[in-house]
Amino acid sequence: MALFLRALGPFAYQELSYVATKAWNRGWQLNTSAASETAPKPLQAVITRRPLTLQPVNAESSIVIEKIGVSAPIVINVDADDSAEYKEALKEGVAHASGSALPGSPGNTFLFAHSSLNFWELGKYATVFNLLGKLEAGDPIILFYKNKRFDYEVIDKRIVPGFNTLPLLRQTTLPVLTLQTCTPPGTTINRLIVTAKAVE
């Protein structure tokens, strides 16, 4: 029983926190002063009264998803076919698939991360995408790369069975962001794919 509660604890906490912020008409908002090019590199979100604010983990390579309270580093150029390499990268944050476009460049920028229950084995970022399924069309996603900010807007969300490589291999001349995680959290049954377009 204790192991069951230990496994479900973080997921339940994230769900309850999300519901509470919606019920109290609060939410996460990017702290734009901290997102400036000259800002220091804070290590965690800063919580204030109404609204809750997020600071980017760093301006060199990170992702902020205000709706679900995500602020995490991005590990650039991770081989998505090398399980040892990507498992190590996912302990450090969200992984950028090597061969996919870099943030702000034309093409498909492909990022993937855990939505897991066994955080004690997978590290600090094991649950970073647990609430990714809450995103809907129009929701903003913000990337920082090499001290520049890139804004995206969600346009699609879908679930695909198993490990489907089509979202990774998708070709486009426009700057598109693809986020992938396992679903349901803690399993590898399906993949949740969120697609976002660049916003000028």
Task: Describe the protein in words.
There is one protein chain. This protein has 200 residues and is α/β, with parallel strands linked by helices. The protein has one domain (2-198): Sortase, Chain: A. It contains four helices and ten strands. The strands form two sheets. Strands 3-4-5-6-9-10-8-7 form an eight-stranded mixed beta barrel. It has a two-stranded parallel ribbon with strand order 1-2. Helix 2 links the parallel strand 4 and strand 5 (94-97).
Compute the number of strand runs. Answer: 10
Which structural class should the secondary elements be placed in? alpha/beta
Low-confidence parts: 1-6, 36-45
Residue-averaged pLDDT: 80
Give the CATH architecture.
Beta Barrel
Return the CATH class: Mainly Beta
Strand line-up of the largest beta sheet: 3-4-5-6-9-10-8-7
For the record, give the distance between the C-alpha atoms at the N and C termini, rounded to a whole number. Answer: 50 Å
CATH fold description: Sortase, Chain: A
Q: Give the topology string: H per helix, E per strand.
A: HEEEEHEEHEEHEE
Q: What is the helix content?
A: 10-25%
What Rg, in angstroms, do the CA atoms define?
16 Å
Report the CATH superfamily: Sortase
Give the biggest sheet.
8 strands, mixed, barrel
Strand content: 25-35%
Number of helices: 4
